[in-house]
Specification:
The structure holds two protein chains of two kinds. The relative contact order of chain A is 0.04. The longest helix of chain A is centred in the C-terminal third of the chain and has 32 residues. Chain A is 72% helix and 0% strand. Chain A is elongated, with a radius of gyration of 41 Å. Chain A is an all-alpha fold. Chain A is built from 16 helices and no strands. By secondary structure, chain B is of the alpha+beta class. Among the domains of chain B are: 165 residues, no CATH class; 116 residues, no CATH class; 101 residues. In chain B, the strands form two sheets. In chain B, strands 2, 3, 4, 5, 6 and 7 form a six-stranded antiparallel β-sheet that branches. Chain B has a four-stranded antiparallel β-sheet with strand order 1-10-9-8, with helices on one face. In chain B, helix 6 crosses helix 8. The longest helix of chain B has 32 residues. Chain B is globular. Classes of the chains: A mainly alpha, B alpha+beta.
Chain lengths: 376, 656
């Protein structure tokens, strides 16, 4: 299809260039006729200028003689010069040469430069690309492959991280942000993105590698609230309630009144306090901004709690779905088991750990977890 | 597929330009009418192919096809549509493509409207035009390909410099390019004439409309650029003598000189060699300007290590075009013998003086622009900044302006200086009175008085000349009829010279009596600036399509009478993160009120910059009037004389 269009363009161009050469009767033309008409016009102008006083009488006369001399010279040349005519074979040859040159040269240059197989990719139409053409998931996989071929492109890794996150391929997102953090280890954002991607990959669990990423972020920016929150969450998930409570309390003390993460932090603190048997901490709304009333707070909390639950639920489902397709992923089953345990779905957790044991009967983590689940 | 089609069309354009640049040239040399005949259709083909290619790139921008590297680097899905489109030429690759498009447009223009040109001459002009296109097409395809692809395509683009997201800038480069590239026609005409070995009054008349068109576009382009700097950069200045501005101003000066010297060729068949040289130099300066503005001859020299191909190509191309044409000039120029005579006191002489000063001015600016850059390359720091230009350039213009008033009153061939000066006595007296009045009444700087005096001098002398032409005092009853009968070219000169006068008033008065206040205030405070009282009513956030802004609301009063409300903004763009100031300007006939809101201070107050600039809008009004003069002159029917058919009806030639 595209070659047909190229061929059409070449044919049109070659015809436009070659056909004038083949025309037999080209009107012969006399250059001096052009000059004569200009000089005649000048004589008329000169008369007008003289009448208007823009040139003196004597000078106008001299100028008239000058122009007339030029006019005569031009008229003398008026004998039409014998026009050379190409022989019919000659013009045919020239036409063929030009047409051939156009086709061959254009083809050669395009062959060196073009990407004939590469379709257009208009971004605005991306939404209605049919699923079988390229699912977002496949897109992320393809881009990951491309990025592995040029691992030193920082921007590429960041884009890949965003893409993979948006399509739920957190494993690829982790890889992408690992690349970004490797290339630019001094940038807090990369470590935060990496930590978040690892948490998302592990269905909400802050595992040691995620902890490591947030720890690096905290080294670069000791007051970073996101790193602080997730390190607190890690402690909380490890049942180190005191450490989590202290970390979160410190964070809450420095929190600006309108911080976006206020709700998250508040909920964490309540849960940590609850587990430690402490009274729920008070959160005084900052005096400068009148806070919402209690009912609104309650409603908002419920809603965001629900949202959050749905989000984790979704992550776990995706993990489970992937494991169904790829059942030999030991780490995956362990992660799923842990996630179910946290969600309180005991039976599912046991099932996941049993799958892990099927793959590696000697796995200590699975054994331990099963014992705890069945015993508790 | 559309993108690849655009790429292929561009390649085909290069190949076709090679044919157009050689076959008609051979035909004209050997006298083969069949080969000469290729030139015109080839010029139309060139335009069609380049337009197709440009449309394909524009389409890629409109639909945000990030598989095109150029789009991915310079656009973003969140960008407003207008700036997606202007993003096409808001970058190096796209701007070169725009250049090529305009080149093809002018080529097709000559093919379409150049019916009064002899076929062989026109074929040579179109061939030279095509050879220039070959250079640019090769530059585009082999070093700056706008159709380079990315696979896989990134999900979104890298945005565009928000400073460039401005309607003024969206239309500024195309206008400037219409001027730059327009001078390519004058260049092609000059080279064709050199090849033919014939420069005569007919040539001067043929080249005139093209020079006029290019000059008008360039004037408008420079004015737009200066206006943009005035309201976008937020410092209230309108000309900074930076290399980019100078790069557009040099071809303007040379082009203005060319416009005037071509008149002498047309009238007296002399000054031919100089005029040809000017045509070559004007286009060479345009080329230099293009590369300085968009690609940066110097940045490309700097980035030799990363992208040597581009810099080498540019330098090679410049050397080939400038060196080649000057070599041809050196061979042919001695054969150009003047055939007309004129006395030292004549309109011709005043035009030569004009050329002298304009050429010196262009050279001074070239020197002042390139010298620091070259010195930097050589390893030492030299700064030739605005103060240098601000002294030298007005001094040169001060030499030029007296002759601007006098010249048009001198007769052709031999003028009567005494008589002309006698007619100009009222203008002279008025100018001196105006200058003295300004000097004593206002205590302004001395140059402001001189500026006002010069403005009055030009206005009055232009009006004196016009009055003389239409016989206003000799036979007032006939004056209107005579005015209508004046050739459009004469009206063009009158209008353009008046435009200069308006501009001089604007420059002198706004520079001398501008008032500015840079201060920190809080809402409710008021500031007095040059007879106006600015009250800051409020400051608050606003959201734009792809930016967040802080907007200040000022009410301006004069003598407790409300004048206008101004809304300056500071805009913060997300991608790429950048801040721009949007000055709020109320352009009044008597002067602009100009407000800029700056940053919040820690104590809740705001930095503001407030200006009153008397007559400043006259600067751009003057430029517009000059453009109008150019267009009026362009509409002169005499410019279309020259086709053999017209010779049979000399009555169709308007009498002057």
């Amino acid at each position: 299809m595209i070659y047909a269009l190229f061929a059409l363009l070449v044919v049109v161009a070659a015809l436009i260039l070659a056909v004038p050469m083949l025309r037999r009767r080209v009107p012969s033309e006399d250059r001096s006729a052009h000059d004569v008409s200009i000089y005649r016009a000048q004589l008329a102008e000169l008369a007008a200028e003289r009448d208007a006083g823009a040139i003196g009488m004597a000078e106008a006369e001299a100028a008239r003689i000058e122009v007339e001399r030029r006019l005569l010279r031009a008229a003398d040349r008026a004998v039409p010069a014998p026009r050379a005519q190409l022989s019919s074979a000659g013009s045919m040859g020239a036409a063929i040469a030009v047409a051939g040159f156009v086709a061959v040269a254009a083809a050669l240059i395009y062959q060196a430069q073009g990407n004939p197989g590469l379709p257009d990719r208009p971004a605005v139409r991306e939404a209605d690309v049919p699923a079988e053409e390229a699912t977002p998931d496949e897109l992320a996989v393809r881009m990951a492959a491309a990025m592995r071929a040029r691992p030193n492109e920082l921007r590429g890794w960041i884009m890949q991280g965003q893409l993979a996150t948006s399509v739920g391929r957190y494993d690829l997102a982790v890889e992408a942000y690992e690349g970004a953090a490797r290339l630019e280890p001094g940038k807090v954002e990369h470590w935060l993105s990496l930590g978040l991607a690892r948490v998302a990959r592990d269905a909400g669990m802050v595992n040691p590698d995620a902890r490591d990423a947030f720890g690096k972020a905290l080294v670069l920016d000791p007051k970073n609230p996101m790193a602080g929150y997730y390190l607190g969450l890690a402690a909380f998930q490890d049942h180190d309630d005191r450490a989590a409570f202290d970390r979160w309390t410190a964070l809450a003390a420095e929190m600006p009144p309108d911080a976006e993460y206020a709700g998250l932090l508040e909920r964490g603190l309540r849960r940590a306090a609850h587990r430690m048997g402490l009274p729920s901490p008070e959160f005084a709304a900052s005096p400068s901004t009148p806070g919402p009333d209690a009912a609104q707070v309650e409603a908002a909390q419920d809603m965001s709690e629900g949202d959050r639950g749905a989000m984790i639920e979704g992550m776990v489902q995706r993990l489970a779905h992937r494991l169904k397709q790829n059942p030999d992923d030991l780490d995956g089953w362990l992660r799923l088991g842990k996630a179910y345990a946290v969600l309180g779905r005991k039976g599912d957790a046991i099932g996941a750990y049993e799958q892990a044991q099927r793959i590696d009967p000697a796995n200590a983590a699975a054994k331990e977890a099963l014992a705890a689940l069945k015993g508790g | 597929m559309i993108v690849e089609l655009g790429h292929f069309a561009l390649i085909l354009a290069l190949v076709a330009a090679l044919v157009q640049g050689t076959v008609p040239l051979i035909g004209a040399q050997r006298g083969y009418a069949a080969l000469i005949a290729v030139a015109r259709p080839a010029a139309f083909l060139q335009l069609a192919l380049v337009a197709l290619s440009f449309a394909a790139l524009t389409w890629a921008y409109v639909v945000s096809d990030f598989s095109v590297a150029n789009v991915a680097l310079n656009s973003h899905t969140d960008k407003p549509m207008l700036y997606k489109i202007s993003g096409v030429w808001g970058n190096h690759e796209g701007s070169i493509l725009l250049w090529i498009l305009i080149l093809a447009l002018f080529g097709a223009g000559v093919a379409a409207f150049g019916r009064n040109l002899p076929a062989a001459f026109r074929a040579r002009v179109l061939a030279i035009q095509a050879l220039i296109a070959v250079g640019f097409l090769a530059f585009s395809l082999f070093t700056s390909n706008p159709f380079a692809r990315l696979d896989p395509a990134p999900l979104n683009g890298n945005g565009l410099n928000p400073l460039l997201q401005d309607p003024g800038l969206a239309f500024h480069p195309p206008m400037l390019y219409l001027g730059y590239v327009g001078f390519s026609i004058a260049f092609s005409f000059a080279i064709a004439a050199l090849i033919e070995g014939r420069v005569d009054p007919a040539w001067a008349r043929w080249v005139r409309p093209w020079t006029l068109a290019a000059w008008s576009f360039l004037t408008a382009g420079i004015a737009l650029g200066s206006w943009w700097a005035y309201y976008e950069l937020g410092w209230g200045g309108w000309w900074f003598w930076d290399p980019v501005e100078n790069a557009s101003f040099m071809p303007w000066l040379a082009g203005t000189a060319l416009l005037h010297s071509a008149i002498v060729v047309e009238k007296r068949d002399t000054l031919k060699s100089w005029t040809i040289l000017l045509a070559i130099l004007t286009f060479s300066l345009s080329l230099l300007g293009t590369f300085l503005v968009r690609s940066g001859v110097l940045t490309s020299v700097h980035s030799f290590a990363s992208d040597p191909a581009r810099g080498v190509f540019i330098l090679g191309f410049l050397i080939l075009v400038v060196g080649g044409s000057l070599a041809l000039y050196a061979v042919r120029a001695p054969s150009m013998k003047p055939t007309g005579m004129f006395s030292p006191v004549s309109r011709e002489t005043s035009l030569i003086l004009n050329n002298l000063v304009l050429a010196v001015a262009a050279f001074v600016i070239l020197f002042g622009t390139l010298y620091p850059l070259l010195a930097k390359e050589a390893g030492y720091q030299v700064s030739v900044a605005a103060p240098f230009f601000n002294i030298v350039f007005p001094a040169l213009m001060a030499l030029l302006i007296p002759f601007m008033g006098l010249g048009p009153l001198l007769a052709w061939k031999r003028g009567n200086l005494r008589e002309s000066l006698r007619r100009l006595r009222p203008a002279l007296v008025l100018a001196v009175i105006a200058g003295l009045a300004v000097a004593f009444a206002t205590k302004g700087p001395f140059w402001a008085s001189i500026g006002v005096a010069y403005g009055v001098w030009i206005t009055m002398s232009v009006l004196t000349e016009l009055a003389g032409r239409i016989g206003l005092f000799r036979s007032p009853g006939q004056a209107l009829r005579r005015a209508a009968g004046l050739p459009r070219g004469a009206w063009g000169m009158t209008i353009a010279h008046l435009g200069i006068a308006v501009m001089i008033f604007g420059i002198a008065v706004s520079s001398a009596w501008q008032r500015e206040e840079i201060t920190v205030i809080e809402p409710g405070d008021s500031v007095r600036v040059g007879g106006y009282r600015f009250v800051l009513d409020a400051v608050g956030p606003v959201r734009g399509p792809n930016y967040a802004a802080i907007r200040g609301t000022f009410s301006v009063y004069k003598d407790d009478r409300f004048v206008v409300r101004l809304y300056p903004e500071t805009r913060r763009f997300a991608d790429p993160p950048q801040e721009t100031t949007e000055a709020a300007i109320d352009p009044l006939f008597t002067g602009d009120l100009y407000a800029v809101i700056g940053h919040a201070q820690s104590d809740g107050r705001w930095g503001v910059r407030l200006y009153h600039k008397p007559l400043v809008s006259w600067i751009w009004a003057g430029a517009l009037i000059m453009v109008l003069g150019g267009l009026v002159s362009l509409s002169d029917r005499r410019l279309r004389v020259g086709a053999p058919r017209a010779a049979k009806v000399p009555a169709g030639v308007p009498a002057e």
